[in-house]
Amino acid sequence: MIGEKLSSDKLEGQLLPKSLALPIFASDPLSSVAYAPQELLMILLLGGLAFLSFAPWVAAAVVLLLLVVVASYRQLIKAYPSGGGDYEVASKNLGEKAGLIVGSALLVDYVMTVAVSVASGVDNIISAVPELAGLRIELAVFFVVLLAAVNLRGVAESSKAFAIPTYLFITSVFVMIVIGLVRTSLGDPPVAESAAFEVKGEQLSQAAFILLLLRAFSSGCSALTGVEAISNGVPAFRRPKIQNAQRTLVLMGGIAIVLFAGLTTLALIANVHYAENACNLVGFDDCQNQPQRSLIAQIASSVFGAGSIPFFILQAATAAVLLLAANTAFNGFPLLGSVLARDGYAPKALNTRGDRLIFSNGVLILGACAVVILVVYRASVTNLIQLYIIGVFVSFTLGQTGMVRHWLRELKKPKAQTGRIWRSLSINALGASFTAIVLIVVTITKFTHGAWLVFLIMPILFTLMLGVNRYYRDVEKEVEVDPHTTFGSRGDHAVVLIGKMQKPALKALDYAIAARHDSLEAVHISIDDEATDKLERAWREMNIRVPLCVLRSPYREIGYPLVKYIKKHQEANGGEVVTVYLPIYIVGHWWESLLHNHKAWRIRQKLLMQHGVTVALVPWLLDSSDVVYGRRSRPIPGQERRGEPVRPMPRKPLKPANDEAVASAGARANAARPKDPDVERAKTSKVKAKSHR
Amino acid sequence: MIGEKLSSDKLEGQLLPKSLALPIFASDPLSSVAYAPQELLMILLLGGLAFLSFAPWVAAAVVLLLLVVVASYRQLIKAYPSGGGDYEVASKNLGEKAGLIVGSALLVDYVMTVAVSVASGVDNIISAVPELAGLRIELAVFFVVLLAAVNLRGVAESSKAFAIPTYLFITSVFVMIVIGLVRTSLGDPPVAESAAFEVKGEQLSQAAFILLLLRAFSSGCSALTGVEAISNGVPAFRRPKIQNAQRTLVLMGGIAIVLFAGLTTLALIANVHYAENACNLVGFDDCQNQPQRSLIAQIASSVFGAGSIPFFILQAATAAVLLLAANTAFNGFPLLGSVLARDGYAPKALNTRGDRLIFSNGVLILGACAVVILVVYRASVTNLIQLYIIGVFVSFTLGQTGMVRHWLRELKKPKAQTGRIWRSLSINALGASFTAIVLIVVTITKFTHGAWLVFLIMPILFTLMLGVNRYYRDVEKEVEVDPHTTFGSRGDHAVVLIGKMQKPALKALDYAIAARHDSLEAVHISIDDEATDKLERAWREMNIRVPLCVLRSPYREIGYPLVKYIKKHQEANGGEVVTVYLPIYIVGHWWESLLHNHKAWRIRQKLLMQHGVTVALVPWLLDSSDVVYGRRSRPIPGQERRGEPVRPMPRKPLKPANDEAVASAGARANAARPKDPDVERAKTSKVKAKSHR
């Protein structure tokens, strides 16, 4: 067994207890109550104040939906505890295409989660500090950049610091609801600052009336976003994983319902009037310059008093939990990428654990998309929410439909516990039909308000993923071992490419000698006569007995003459396998690679295009290269959701002192026995460097 | 000799005749007459209409300066015909730092050449089609992107199509000047559309009066930009190179003087009133919305008639020659980069001829900088010209001072032709003092108008280049062969990394067998038990006699267990050199590399960090890889100025059918004699693939 093994106990200890899992996975769904009631009421207000009387019914529908979805996901967790979530369920039960639709929906949704959460977070900051209103977009972009930077640097999601905002948010909103309701029951209901504003309602036909109710419901459904998060994180739970995940899900659902219902009730009690266009509020005079404060901020100031300390605590908690929700997308995005990669729908590199570079790209892509979206939609929650939840409900619907298929299949198995299965089946069928209806409603009500963009991007992602898969399939076929393949190359000629008389070149020569090839020669491509003369002189002076072949390159190219020379050799020697030794630099800083190796890389690529050529890279570690280490122990986005503990990688001892290490190996070199008299000349020659100046 | 040799005659035939060299190198200096007279007169007008009476004197000063600079560069071409220009002269004669100052000045100047030329080109397009006035910035950005795209694609500067706009521009401006002067002598002088406009002049103190004259002169000096282009292009001329280049330079100087003087005279005759702020023109009522037409457009419409065909021809030629001038910067930038790289002040990769990728980066950087500058300065010639010519005159002054040093040194040589040298010396001394004075004037008059930015950026570039040089020097020292280095590694163990039972892995194994190492084993890192079982079964079925060692990797990593295994082997065997065979894919399209090889690359990097490890890359050429060829024959920016003919690269025949090639080599494999009984086991085993399903 290789690798520092963590015992099972130890592994278990690094997994998430429920008390940490709740805030980590629930920050996304819980934070959505910060904007869902506001958007729900806002749409109703389009029809005028009278429409607010429908609010309890619409909110009740959202709560019912939330109940159904939570119940459905309880089933999903039980059946698919591997963390694949809707994507896995859909692709396993409904086939590849359904899985890919879910995949593309989720990719879009991660971007939207970042955008909406950050926009809402900024909105709540502005609600507390209205002076910042002019910097809305700048703040939003700043927070996305900050989140991206934090995730590029590496951050352990399980850190307890991450739990604080969520618990603070839950507690403070809960306290606010209780105080508000108690005050109301005592005959002193809170009154929002916008309570006095009249609203210019539109005259609505009956069809428009129904459509408006449906639109309000659609916007309220944004409260459901993120419910699926726990189903993706089951592997990160402590044992018994399934039960713990299910309990956390139910707990989260309960809290979400309480907060959502409580906030909506309080908003209605306090008469919060939040309009899509602030200037539709009659009485809000400075609507052009003053920001409209968020619903949660208006409730908080009416309950706690404007500018009071609890008000600021609540706003801070709200903003923090929203940013945390955005952070979860930075964790989920690469995780989904790795799942897609594992199944061959995304570049395989995305499935390379521990490759910070890859995850950096994912973080950068997600951040860049979110920034673009935020700038284009001017960081307005109301605008952004139109693009949201399409993806969520696509994945809900397909996931639940997949679950129905799953249970139907289970039923057919021998010894199936039909009673239980029927129960699960009906729950998921209910979930599937509810979410399907909502998806239709959402599509109808939001398509022309901006959601068309999602319907444009999803097929593009879908096609790309399918294309990647087909590409891999073709390659797989191309490299498949078939009955007619016969290998059996022969020959063992080696060429060492010598540029200048420098240590890296001599090391390459040394290694080539150590490998005792049948024949060995050093090749120098001359692009500068003076340098070539100097090299030849040094070669003689140092008494190196490997022959040095000089090739002139009139066009100052290196790869082409070398390839031509090798080809000639192969033609003369019946297609021998030729090993070309290339010395290359290993550097420490990214910018150093801008200054090195490009030529070597080009030569390598040229050589690799030839048949019968192997390129042997002989590294020369520059002093700076030991800086490379020490960067590995930072966690990678999505690592914890996958159930992988964040462990410090064992640091390898690396001594930068190449010379000593090689030299000590050299001390034993004399023991090497000559093997073949034919190649004696090359084999026994020993490179000993003398001062050659 | 390797490489298809072009005979000297043939090479000569591909060099530039004077008739082509003139338009190619002169588009930059000649095009500057399209804005120089305008900017000169505009600054004078700041003082009011009366100041125009100083215009002939200021213009005469510019012409005198042009004469002196042309004469100076005739000397420079003679002394330094290698195409290094001012940079070479300054660094050879005044030392490294002076050379770097010139280098950074020129880098800045290339960006400004693109920006100013494109801005002026767009200005002239708008002057012909005023409806486009609202799209000024968009058009400018479009043209920069277009030029970058054309240069990324590769374009032969020597194409005759490039000569047409320059000749058309020269001819049509010349015809316009002649017609205008003839009409004036016949008593029918042209009258510009702005002739009737009064100008609100400022009240000036005497100091301000002189400063204004100096500012006008500074702006007029923009006519001198690009004069140095020919000195950078001497290698591209036909023999006798020096004489041809000198004659072309003189011819260009003559044409520039005629055009500049002619346009200024006509502008004064036609009373063109061009103001820095259009709304300072009394009588130009719609100054907010209507664009002020360029000086050349106003002259053209007064001479040929507004909206006449010759007017449009002239405007088109002007715009075309200006865009051509911008294109020359796209050629000069990478050329300068390669010269700096050759001397170790820029990444060495920039000196890799034929590497399209590198030049692409140069083109992209230049284009991006120009776009940023154009957007920030709103594509206004008047704003941009403030940043221009600082760099030009820095490089003029240092170049000419370097020439003075050069001649002084020449004088000291025995058998020096003192007469001739003294003549050259005095010409260059005159040039140096003139350009130094102008540099001081330009700095004083432009610093607060935006030129400070140039004085900020130049030191940054200077420091970067010096830093790169010091880095290379340190590395050079680190890899220098010193008396204490002793090499002499021993051992010859080989490891073939096997992922799946696929052709690339078998090919790597086959090559490793062919190389007949002392000992050979296949290593598989198991991250998936099922896949490992499948591999082990296939291994047995195919009767491969190389032992397969399976390493379990609990953390799904590949590099680390492999490195650990190799280290253990080295510890047990006294630090043997271990060759690790890695199969890698060679692909055809850039996007394919997103889908492959990342894992292999990571493993390779990890292995290369180890002492005593060589990585042997065994390529597997995917079918798509033969697409790579056929892209090489396109010219690279700066190729022709360097005097390198654009030649089609010999196409290498590449058969994608790997199997046959390897298989045919395999047919001869049986002849391979066993070498060492100890390693018989591995050496004689033959990989023969059978259907293993």
From TrEMBL, chains A, B:
Domain of life, source organism: Bacteria
Topology of this chain in the membrane: Multi-pass membrane protein
Region (Disordered): 632-693
InterPro entries, alphabetized: AA/rel_permease1 (IPR002293), APC_K+_Transporter (IPR053153)
Compositionally biased spans, kind Low complexity: 661-672
Protein localization: Membrane
Entry-linked Pfam families: AA_permease_2
Entry's transmembrane regions: 40-70, 100-121, 133-152, 164-186, 206-227, 248-270, 312-336, 357-379, 385-404, 425-444, 450-468
Compositionally biased residues, Basic residues: 684-693
Main localisation: membrane
GO MF, one annotated term: transmembrane transporter activity
Cellular component terms per the entry's GO annotation: membrane
Compositionally biased region (Basic and acidic residues): 673-683
Keyword terms, alphabetized: Membrane, Transmembrane, Transmembrane helix
The name this protein goes by in its record: APC family permease
Native species: Naasia lichenicola
